[in-house]
Amino acid sequence: MFDDLKDGFEWLIDQFWAGLVALFEGLLSIIPAPEFVNQARQYFLTAANYLEYPLYLVGMDVGLPMVFGAWLIRFIIRRLPIVG
Fold it and tell me: Mean pLDDT throughout 44-49?
């Protein structure tokens, strides 16, 4: 009996949050995007085109994943009770 009440209460909370999210999405869709947002998007895309080759030359496509992988491995090793 308590499980049914708990499930019903959880369903009610889920429906409330789904309705709240739908309401928020609806309100956001009414607000038009300013023109500078579209301009900023174009500037970022242009900058990405200009930065792609220099970043490739310095090896960011290979080096950045190596650095993040090393940080992740160090984090995992430090969590081991024997080593860390």
Answer: 87
